[in-house]
Amino acid sequence: MAARGTGRAVAGAAAAAGVAQPPKALIERLNKRYDSLHREFEDAFWATKMGLKDSPVGTGEALSKSKTAYEGFLADPANLKEVQTALEALVDGQDAQGEDQKILSIMEKTFRCYQLPSKEAEDLRQRITEEEFVLQNEIRGGMKLGYLDPKSGNFVKASSVLLRTTMATAEDEETRKAAYDGARSIGPTVAEQFVKVVKMRNKFAKSMGYVDYYDYKVSMAEGFSKATLFGDFLGPLEERSRPIMEDARARLAAEKGEAALKPWNTSQALAGDVTKKQDPYFPFEEAISAWARSFAALGIKYRGATMQLDLLDREGKYSNGFCHWPQCAYVDTEGNFKPSQTNFTSLATPSAVGSGNTALTTLMHEGGHAAHFANIVQGSPFFSQERAPTSVAYAENQSMFLDSLCGDAAWLAKYARNSAGEPIPWELLEEGIRAKSPYSVLALRSMLSVPFFEKALYEMPEADLSAESVQALADDVERKIQGGLGPRPLLSVPHLLSDEASCYYHGYVLAEMSVHQTRAHFLSKYGFIVDNAKIGPDLTEVYWQPGNGEAFLDLVERLTGSALSSDAWIAELGVDLEERVVREKKEYEAAVEAGPAIPADADSVDLEMRMVLVHGDTVISSSEEDGWKGAQAKFKKFIAENFPVKA
């Protein structure tokens, strides 16, 4: 520790004197320091979010301490000064456009994102971290979440994910209403502490010279202002999709009755019966195999990554799936590639109807994140970390493109199979298309409601902020953007509460724009996407390898040949239902005839990665120790023993 401190002091003195440390030495030192602090924070983040009992860093104190050290390094003005001094020394021609300049430039950009104007701002940031922990872990994480069974009167424990699944699949309205009330109970529970955090966040952002906290977050991550986000992208999308949403709601009421518009009924009205009928073709225990084979068939590789998967729900576990990287992928100063290490979680309840489909979609999504960050091949972990200046939209584009395949008839024909290996029948897929397709705009509007709520929230005068006003605002935004209260109450969205995910949801919207544009590009270029081994290399070369060294909007335009817009998304929403059915049936029949590129009984799947399956503190299996088939067999056995099917 003494030697490390001395090194910082010497380097800081050199920077203060205007003497540049040799670029390679500076890059190596900052890379190693970042690596260490990032891992310490991510280890504590994982341990607290997963509720690990055996971890020495699974405490609020450890998380707060590691986050403070990590952010302190990023905010240290001496680091920024050193990098700027080194960059100035390159201007005269020494590698002015080379690799050192590229690496130092992303370091400068990153350090700039975290500079604080005063000691007061530093202290405030630390207090926010502490209050956010109370909000997320003690209040939200400690609440008794679930619903009262209307038949027995007993309280049924349920995560927010299971509550939404219950709303989509329960046959009786009373149970659906009880599940909705359970999800809605989150708002009153967190509101008071959330308001406290919101006020502190806004105070912090304004001390940095930003309009409010949302403006600060989007400027740091995306490189443009809140005004640009809503003026150029979200506002126009809201206007273009509003009449489509109004028509969809009118159609739903006409077909299913006005009661279908009640928030606890909408999900079931759209998909409940179909979800139950399709459920046997999404066995939860086969989800890992389907995800891995599908990615391998696309030509996706993980470049030697290690992936730790905690997929099953349990009490005390964080209520949203996520993918983080305790080890960022990068090429060190000796030219050696350091593979990523990934922590990847979901909240599956294997016995619940629809859990297999949800698990598979989550695996495709979070596995997409993991593939993206595993394939960033740059000279520093600064390029491959998920915080600012990494664009939220850039990060989400990759995962959402890959989970979009779960809605393709061609993909479902190959990977939605029952326990006998039989493909899902076309009649069930057609029923699903007819039930859901006319209403897909409702998902768009649900997605839009989150950034519009956060925009209004952080623009609210501080004197008007209260637990009651924030809950009322959430309802007002749901009614305005979704046309009525939605199945997922806004204050139940976990992103709102955490520092790293707050003012983040706009990224999903921009990413979905890009997903439709990217899909249209690949369909135009190749004619098909599912099991197309050229897709992975294209994504890797254009979207993944640059990391955050290039702007999201530039990468989309480079791949697709057009600037990002909502045109492809709006066009897809406008496709005639009968035309869609004909198109999907043709693709389904061709896919059934071809079968999956990699069969379900394959002895191995080459993704160039090591998979470790865990459940909290318990290591279930590892592909390295048990082999690909052995790891899955142990996982299936664990599920059978710990999540028995209810009679």
Describe this structure as you would to a colleague:
The protein has 25 helices and nine strands. Strand 5 (330-331) and strand 6 (337-338) form a beta hairpin. The longest helix is centred in the middle third of the chain and has 31 residues, at 226-256. It has a five-stranded mixed sheet. A two-stranded antiparallel sheet has the order 1-2. A two-stranded antiparallel sheet has the order 5-6. The termini are far apart. The chain has 647 residues and is of the alpha/beta class. It is globular and about 70 Å long.
Keywords:
647 residues, globular, alpha/beta, 60% helix
Give the helices and strands, then pairings.
Blueprint: H1 2-16, H2 23-49, H3 60-75, H4 77-90, H5 99-113, H6 119-140, E1 146-148, E2 155-157, H7 160-169, H8 173-184, H9 186-207, H10 213-222, H11 226-256, H12 263-278, H13 287-297, E3 305-312, E4 322-327, E5 330-331, E6 337-338, E7 341-348, H14 355-374, H15 392-403, H16 409-415, H17 426-436, H18 441-459, H19 467-482, H20 506-526, H21 535-544, H22 552-560, H23 567-573, H24 577-594, E8 609-615, E9 618-622, H25 623-642
Parallel strand pairs: 3-7, 3-8
Antiparallel strand pairs: 1-2, 4-7, 5-6, 8-9
Helix pairs in contact: 1-4, 2-3, 3-6, 4-5, 6-9, 7-8, 7-12, 9-10, 9-19, 11-18, 12-17, 13-14, 14-15, 14-21, 15-20, 16-24, 17-24, 18-19, 20-23
